[in-house]
């Protein structure tokens, strides 16, 4: 296969924060695949670290195998490219869910572990997003920052019902109570969506250790630095979250859409989304 232009650049970093002894977050990214995964583990002594690590390992491995032209699964002829990638991310997340559950059953010290998750797959003019829990995906486009995922949390439910205002929500003590997580129960509802991407878009995957410490306005202002220097934006976001208290682990991945985004043509497009 011919050498392909890299259309999305990715950088990431994770930090334990200022109050936690262990870092239970995990990140993984591969620009050549257009794939990035961020997980925020929870439960048990160090078990959160096991759950998040298993999630990124299971999902990245499952997707790489299925995208391998020699070993991968074939696309249903009635399935669109978007449907294929949405199914791909959903099934990979469900696979991670089952593996984490089975590990917890075999190892008593891991019982009760789980992880929140956000994963993205870029291809053609699209990005497919899989999301469980309160790890987030932000998009910065033409100076406007938007949250592209909705938290699966008690706090979000109360915001949706009008019981809390966004201003009051920043001060409630139960911000981290999630209503959905990977590896907690056999039945898992994975939120999957596909978004159109544009040249110059900047996407931020983050654990709640970032957005619990910084407002969206602060995140957006700092993320503007990624236009010229993604690494600077990452360093600043982590430093600012720590300066604000660093009460949890902090993980960020910045993905920047570079150059012209072009659609591919041909019978094997679903296997070769980048050219």
UniProtKB/TrEMBL annotation:
Gene3D superfamilies: PPM-type phosphatase domain (3.60.40.10). PROSITE patterns: PPM_2. Pfam families: PP2C_2. This is Stp1/IreP family PP2C-type Ser/Thr phosphatase. Residues 4-257 form the PPM-type phosphatase domain. InterPro entries: PP2C (IPR015655), PPM-type-like_dom_sf (IPR036457), PPM-type_phosphatase-like_dom (IPR001932). It comes from Leeia speluncae.
């Amino acid at each position: 296969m011919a050498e392909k232009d890299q259309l999305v650049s990715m950088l990431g970093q994770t930090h334990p924060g200022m109050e936690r002894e262990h870092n239970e977050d995990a990140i993984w990214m591969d620009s050549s695949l257009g794939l990035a995964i961020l997980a925020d583990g929870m439960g048990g002594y160090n078990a959160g670290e096991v759950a998040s690590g298993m999630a990124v390992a299971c999902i990245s491995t499952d997707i790489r195998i299925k995208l391998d032209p020699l070993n991968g699964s074939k696309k249903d002829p009635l399935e669109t490219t978007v449907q294929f990638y949405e199914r791909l991310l959903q099934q990979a997340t469900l696979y991670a869910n089952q593996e984490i559950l089975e590990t917890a059953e075999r190892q008593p010290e891991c019982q009760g572990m789980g992880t929140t998750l956000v994963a993205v797959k870029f291809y053609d003019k699209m990005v497919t997003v899989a999301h469980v829990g309160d790890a987030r995906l932000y998009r910065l486009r033409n100076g406007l920052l938007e949250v592209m995922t909705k938290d699966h949390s008690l706090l979000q439910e109360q915001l949706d019902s009008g019981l809390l205002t966004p201003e009051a929500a920043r001060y409630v003590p139960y911000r981290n109570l999630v209503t959905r997580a990977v590896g907690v129960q056999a039945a898992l509802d994975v939120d999957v969506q596909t978004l159109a991407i544009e040249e110059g878009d900047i996407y931020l995957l983050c654990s709640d250790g970032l957005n619990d410490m910084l407002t969206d306005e602060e995140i957006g202002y700092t993320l503007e630095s990624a236009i010229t220097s993604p690494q600077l934006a990452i360093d600043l976001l982590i430093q600012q979250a720590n300066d604000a208290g660093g009460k949890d682990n902090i993980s960020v991945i910045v993905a920047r859409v570079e150059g012209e985004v072009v659609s591919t043509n041909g019978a094997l497009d679903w296997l070769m989304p980048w050219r």
